[in-house]
Write a structure and sequence with these properties.
The complex is a heterodimer of chains A (295) and B (367). With 295 residues, chain A is mainly α. Chain A is built from 13 helices and 2 strands; from the N terminus they run H-E-E-H-H-H-H-H-H-H-H-H-H-H-H. Classes of the chains: A mainly alpha (295), B alpha+beta (367).
Chain lengths: 295, 367
Amino acid sequence: MERKSKKAWLYLLPSLLFLAAFMVYPLIDVFIYSVEEGYNSASQSFFGYGLYNFSYVLHDPYFIQAVKNTMILVVITVPLSTGFALLISLGLSSIKKLRDLFQTIYFLPYVTNTLAVGLVFMLLFKQTQQSPGLVNIFLGLFGIDPVNFLEGPYWAKMFVLCFYTIWVVLPFKILILTSALASVNQDYYNAAKLDGTSKFRTFTRITLPMISPMIFYLIVTGSIGAFKAYSDAVALFTTDLNAAGMNTIVGYVYDMLYGNSGGYPSYASAAALILFVIVLTITCINLLISKKISI
Amino acid sequence: MKVELKGLTKKYPSRNKNEKKDVVAVSNFDYTIPDGALVGLLGPSGCGKSTMLNMISGLQKPTEGRIFFGDTDVTDISPENRGVGLVFQNYALYPHLTARQNILFPLQNLKGKDKLSKEAMEEKMHEAAKLVQIERYLDRKPSELSGGQQQRVAIARALVKTPKVLLLDEPLSNLDARLRLQTREEIRRIQRETKVTTVFVTHDQDEAMSISDYIVVMKEGVIQQTGKPQDVYDSPANLFVAKFLGIPPINVFDGEVKDGKIYIGNDPVLNVKNVKEGKVYVTVRPEGFIPSADGALKCGLKSLEIMGRDVSIISENPASLSESIRSIVDADIKLDPALSEVRFNIKPHKLFIFDAETEERIYFETV
């Protein structure tokens, strides 16, 4: 037994070392940074320990804006993308012809580079001297005045960011939900059919409960993913997110480290820890709800 | 409700793209199920019996032929409007609903003039639960019920709408041996009490023989024989039916009809008349052998299996198509296991002969 467990530890050693060096140590470091007040990265010195960094971050209007943006992003994109993915998966599983083609099309965003997609969205939404952007041209057909989506009002920018996020996360959700739908035993549907169950009732009383574990999985991972959003905003609004008022929490952390106003690892660490607490709370709530509802 | 099946045929397009010919699952199925009867569709896997069940339920449409419930042609009526209850092989109970909710489910679907009040639904649900004796388990989920209990819930769910026809797909296949005996009596009792016309599908001849009023033996989509179980057993129409029915299975020999005698190998075992001469298969039921010192059929004795009530004699004969011949005789007949040879006389009504080419039954008269 002894020998066996020694051997096991030996096999685990490489990955443990890597985890310790690149995960555990930085995590501890982040925690230490966050409580070191007045840390100066040039002289590597600080005044003392305390919670000032947290207080600073929580009072920073850029951080408040970033939290607000992230929250809106989570609240809008997670339910909407899951809902759309469910509708599209239902559609996909009820058609026979061209199913493979549609599956491929819906999966494309998953394998497309974020920045390339950003470029496409520029074409759709950006107003230039040559063109008001494809979406504005389309809106013009209905006599709607052009909207400056990328540099205009807050709601317009938020709309584009949400639209973009939903579009990017859809493929993975569709993939998961189509396989979840396919794994429901056909006999349940046959039984429901024989009993004259309406389509709607079959969906709400049979399909939904059967795939609910997968839906909750998507909501939990989707929320975590949305809280960590950063690259999407960069792809749309370039790196100066604070100026655009479209920063996210992760973006704020990045700016504090390396951005124009950078060089403050203590503030960055404090912001990262606040994000961690938010994500942890939301995930716990999600799990509690899912346990209550599902079988 | 009488169920009439007229010339039912079901063809599937072949999965093999190079093969243009359709796969025929059921071919020209003609049979009438009397009102209130319990009929077993019997056959090996892939004989089309499940397809038959699906066509009666309406889940599959026949390629040709018509289905009548009573005098109504239901061929083009959708499954929910036919008034059938189907018990699936895996029961298909909704796992997230309790037994009670599962049984209530079909009632809650009723709309318009059929809509029931809450009390009426409860009453019907309790009636069905009482019939299958699962009232105590109503608040359990399927995962908390044993296989037998799950099946009772499934039957209750199928019966709660008082269907015209009850269909059971391999009802006993998911149960262990002991529960199987108990459940088949249970199915029989429920069917007698409700008097609902019932069709069930099985590949287990024992199951079909024991509870059916009538059996339909199928092979490759074609009816081989229909009738009361005992009649089919006592008078199989062809070699397939003879081999398929009966445990232990019937013994098959190469034989011949010559000079008014039936031969097994070189042993003349029976004197007959009015029979066409030629090569035949001679089959004898295990209970058709009488050990006798001057018996006509000579066999090499291999072993004896003493089962208490009766004794199985395992012997061999070069004309036998299987390695050993199993005969069951009364335990009172004493046989010395050290003997190398055993001789049998054959009971004439336990011996059937079949044409060596067509495998159809050849009837004979004994002398």
